[in-house]
## 1
Amino acid sequence: MQYYKNLINELRANNIIPMVVLYHWDLPQALQDHGGWLNESVVGHFNDYADKCFSELGPKVGKKTKRPVYVACMFSKKKISV
């Protein structure tokens, strides 16, 4: 997390407003190791991950989105609620 805090601070110091996308067709490895989106419990874990990122990084970034998760779930072979 500190790496991303430092990165965001450096971007802002150079007048660049970062946009954070938490899921761009690649889950954090720990979630993928638990079966990825085919494991329903991953949805809750990803939500916890997103909440942590938003609470720690949110105040310093411009835009934030979890939107691609919905798209990934739409194309899943298994019904997953988000």
## 2
Amino acid sequence: MTTIEAGTLPRLKERYLNVLRPQLQEELGLANVMQVPRLEKIVLNCGVGRATSSSPSSRAPSATSS
């Protein structure tokens, strides 16, 4: 687990703790907050693979003489 500076939480984790976890607890009818499912890892795919594999010259518009 990574160390987080005092007073700072990632926005998604803060939203989960303050909004989603209480809603899940109520929706699932759980008596104890420790019974609510936890988030362990979130992975975001930005989809930059194709952009990094092609050369910049192939993406640049070609100059045509008029």
## 3
Amino acid sequence: MNRLPIAIRRMLSIATMLNTAPIATFASMASNNRTRKMLRTLVVLAGMLLIEHSRTLADQPTETAGSSFTTAAPIGEESQATGGLEDLLLRAERSVVKLYGAGGIRGLESYQSGVLIGDGSMILTSWTTVLDVDKVRVVTFDGRRLDAEVVGVDPECELALLKVPNPGLPAFALQTNNKATPGQRVFAITNLFGIAAGNEACSSQKGVVMAISMLRASLAGKQTVYQGPIIMTDAMTNNPGASGGALIDLRGNLIGLIGKELRDEQNGIWINYALPIDVVKGSMERILTGQTRSASANTKAVENHHDYKTIGISMVPNVLPKTPAFIDRVQADTPASRAGLMPNDLVLLVNEQRVDSQKGLEKILTTIDRNDSFPMLVQRNNELVRIQIRP
């Protein structure tokens, strides 16, 4: 009883008084309708506070062998232990970076988050329009500003891998045995809303894993290409800037990567989710093995090469430094029409090279002989379609 907060002890004392008071006294007090409602409210509040306090005590973490970081202190305002939860979050925040690039208008923000992996020179993040620049600006936890290049992307998972000069920062290990489970307490570390611009700490949001589910277009309002398992949490991560951030457990292990912002404006539904660690690791391995990659500056143009006219397509007006490669029209009886290309298709990969803009597409086509066929990956609404262009 003495360990309970004083507010709960006082309310319980009132409840005890009501149970032990003479019947005549209680009847007299209860004759007043307002007094009766007040007493009933006090008893209910005392019970609710007692239940919540019991849950807080039950949820306090205990020391676990093999922890990645120092054992977490009890989660709550009363936790003052050095090397506990605060230390864990500080260590994890050092492996989360802020990314800045293209964008700058509502719905196309110019910032997001990323996580350092390996030796600290590689960054995993979401593949968004933010990366549609020659150099992505990276800001570390201590305020250093570095330039990163896109190593490659995985369109199916909508993830990208960046490389920076090794900043000597701690990085997360991609261990597939660190799997999330429903009911597990987690933290999301991100730069949501772009609040941290220099050496300020990223935001840390406490949450619980609500479910391990499958992400489908019907669930996400047809705004996602990725169709696979996700970790659904109650941490409000579906906000600008959070994409690409870290989802960690109470031992500091990376268990997921915060997904792209998904919001259905028509029905007001959004999803707070992360891609599981095994999906993230598999995506990174596909990028590193060259299954998907960026356009290489070392590719040489050939004399008799492909262009829009030989394929039979017209693109939307090229009015931006990096206008997306959307197809405007497809000419009849051309390689494009026979292959199945359609207006409004967004070209993502050509010859397994990433297309970041119309200029990038033109450059890749100059490296392909007009007599050669080549594969193409396009996004059509919320689907990825593989096309083979044949002369």
